[in-house]
Amino acid sequence: MLQAVNPVIPGIAAIAPELVEVRRRIHAHPELAFEETLTSDLVAELLTGWGYEVHRGIGKTGVVGVLREGQGTRTVGLRADMDALPLTETTGLPYASRHANKMHACGHDGHTAMLLCAARHLAATRQFSGTLNLIFQPAEENFGGAKAMMDDGLFDRFPCDAIFAIHNMPGRAAGDMAFRTGAAMASADRVTITLRGVGGHGAMPHFARDPMSAAGSIMVALQTIVAREVDAQHAAVITVGSVQAGETFNIIPETVTMKLSVRALNADVRALLARRIEALVKGQAESFGITAEVDYDYGYPVLVNHAEPTAFAAGIARQMLGAERVETDAAPLMGSEDFAFMLEARPGCYAFIGNGIGSKGGCMVHNPGYDFNDDILAIGASYWVRVAEAWLAA
User: Which domains does the chain have, with CATH numbers?
Assistant: First the structure.
């Protein structure tokens, strides 16, 4: 069994308290997708002070810090997300969000601070040979900031032989890590269905064409796609999250709008769901004598970790933490991540670090009571340093 060395690099331990304060400063001033101006200002200021070549405005508010050392030709990209969520914080912490309906409820403040901590150490020690690209990404939450950065030429301007990212995970022991080769997180698509019938008096439905009845039938029938058309060994989810229609008790509405979330862990299953949802909805609508429009918004693709970079990253974690603290075949998650776009363009690995269990770090993300566990910041930063130094070994 691999025995852990001290997981925290001494140089990281010395500077971690300062970066905890940076994390809390970011936490108190959360910014939503593509609005991360104060956060990107802070990131750029710190990176510049540590000697990085700083590039701004990539994907609107994204920042890339570049550090070159030695004669090595290898390149690597380390990515952290910066955006907050439209949520009102209830933690009551001294550094809680000072802005209503804006909160770092997914730990992106911690991800940013972890990478900044590693950035400072790597700039001070320079124990690598090659090019280090630190990618501070905006708008991970629902808006595809990764793709926006790529559309602005991210990998053309800053070539990366491999890319790596990390996300905190409440419910896993603080500092423990998890990896998975292959499909690790689901695709996420949004569907808006508009049903159009003929409105009428609730007492005389025979004069109307009721889209509400059709909506009820469609809502139930959609689940047969997953239950009867998707291979039982493949995960898929169709969730009807919103049904909007009508204004009062006794009027049959003319239109109904349904909003769906559709997820899959396989690209072929994703395509099947898209085909079958449209066919089922239109067929059901026709059977009720109404019409249907299906607006299918393809969102984040399946996040697929590449074998070699994942084995490399998991090996770093095992050496650092000990084998008993690193899961190398973690179950896939039905949540989604726009780092998937980057992994379609470059080989790499998306990993998880435990945020804690119970009262310290165990509150699930996207919850108003969540907070990033500062105890894992130095561990995550040490992981980043070891990944960079090993990938860019002199």
Answer: 10-185+302-391 (3.40.630.10), 187-300 (3.30.70.360)
